[in-house]
Prior knowledge:
- One of its GO terms (cellular component) is cytosol.
- There is one protein chain.
- The chain has 264 residues and is an alpha/beta fold.
- The protein has two domains: 5-195, Vaccinia Virus protein VP39 (Rossmann fold, 3-Layer(aba) Sandwich); 206-262, rRNA adenine dimethylase, C-terminal domain (Helicase, Ruva Protein, domain 3).
- Helix content is 34%, strand content 20%.
- It has helices spanning 23-33, 52-55, 69-79, 98-101, 119-126, 141-148, 158-166, 206-218, 224-227, 234-239, 253-263, and strands at residues 5-6, 9-10, 19-20, 40-44, 61-65, 85-88, 108-113, 132-140, 167-175, 180-181, 188-195.
- α8 (206-218) crosses α11 (253-263).
- The longest helix has 13 residues, at 206-218.
- The termini are far apart.
- The protein binds S-adenosylmethionine (SAM).
Amino acid sequence: MIKLKYNQHIINKNLGQNFLIDSDVIRNIINSINPKKTDIMIEIGSGLGALTTHIHKFLNKLFIIEYDKHLASRLFLSFGNVNSIKIFVQDVLKFNFSCIEKKNYDSIRIFGNLPYNISVILLLYLFKYDNIFDMNFMFQREVANRLVALPGTKSYGRLSIISQYHCKIMRLFDVYPRSFRPIPKVSSTFLRLVPYKNQEHYVKNIHNLEKVTALAFNKRRKMIKHSLSELFSENILIKLKVDPRLRAENLSITQYCILSNYIS
Ligand code: SAM
C-alpha cells in the first residue's frame, strides 16, 4: 500500500491529518482569534506547526497538544527551545484542562484545526470544563452547520441543542478543501464557541436534556406527542405550553429546557 506523505511526514488518516497550507487561511485564523500577550492559549493538534509558528509570537504562554509521536518530535525540534511553549504528547480526550487552571490562570483560550474524526466527541468533553474563555476551531462544514443550526432547519438536531445550550456559537469563515494537504473530500468552516458564564437557558440536570433530545430526535419525523410519550402525556405537553403536534426539529432550545426541567 502506498503511504501518503506531506513534508516528509507519513500521513496517519486515523488521526485526521490534513495540514493547513494556505497562508491566507492561516492569517484569517490568527486575526480572528486575535491573540494577546496575557492570553493563556492551548492548541489542539499542532501537527507540523502551521498555526503554532505564527501565533506563539503574540503570546507569553502557549500549551500545545499533539498525539502523533512523529509529529511531536518535529514540534520539539521546532519549538523545544521556545520558553513560552509547552508541548504535551497525548490524546486531547484524556487531557486535564483543569491542570492549567491550577497554575493560576483565570481562563483559557483553545484553538485548533481539529482532527474531524473526534471533533464532536471533543466538544462534548470540553463542555464539562468551566475554565474556558473561548474555543476557536476548524470543523467539517456539515458539523459546523449542525452546530449553528436553528429550529426548523434540516441541520438542527441534538448537537445544535446541546452545543447552543453551553455556548454562543459564531460562524467565522468557510475554508476550501484545497487549503489542506492532503486535500480532504469535505469543505470546512471555522467557528468560535464562547461558553456562557451565565447560562442563557437553564436546565437543572443536563442528562435530562440529553435524554429528552435523544428520544425526540430518534423519531425525528414523528409528532412529539408520540416520540416523547414515554415521558410526557399530551396534557402535560399542553400544560408546559409545548404544542404536542410539533416535530423534534420545531422545538426551540428553551422548550427543550422546559421539558427537561419538568422531568427533573
Ligand atoms: N494544526 C495542524 C495544521 O493545521 O496543519 C494539523 C491539523 S490536523 C487537521 C489535526 C492534528 O491533530 C494532527 O496533527 C493530528 O495528529 C492531531 N490529533 C489527532 N487526534 C488527536 C488527539 N486525540 N489528541 C491530540 N492530537 C490529535
